[in-house]
Amino acid sequence: MKNRINRDIAEVMRDEMGMKKSIISLLSEEPKTIPEIATVLQYPGADVMYWVMAMWRYGYIEETGKPNDEGYYTYRLTNKDIV
Questions:
Q1: 10-50 pLDDT, tens per residue?
Q2: CA-derived radius of gyration, the chain
Q3: Coil, strand, or helix at residue 14?
Q4: Per-residue H/E/C for 22-65
Q5: How remote is the C-alpha of 57 from its chain's centroid?
Q6: How many CB atoms lie within 10 A of CB 14?
Q7: Does the predicted model carry a pTM greater than 0.90?
Q8: How far apart are CA 52 and CA 44, in angstroms?
Q9: Which architecture does CATH list for 9-77?
């Protein structure tokens, strides 16, 4: 993982638009958990959580069901048009 520990929340949110495209690309392949997304993107899970929750709030992604054995939900894209 790159040196992105202890970033200010403003920095994390500034990256949101670029990361949205990367997350959409990953989830178009198959549903993933936040730790799986964080590993592929090489960002801390806390940063990825902000981006995923923003996308969830606006209806771009949804949970696939109940959490896995580790307590993580798996997320997939919805049918909403993504701009």
A1: 666 677 777 889 999 999 999 999 999 999 999 999 889 98
A2: 12
A3: helix
A4: HHHHHHHHCCEEHHHHHHHHCCCHHHHHHHHHHHHHCCCEEECC
A5: 12
A6: 11
A7: no
A8: 12
A9: Orthogonal Bundle (1.10)
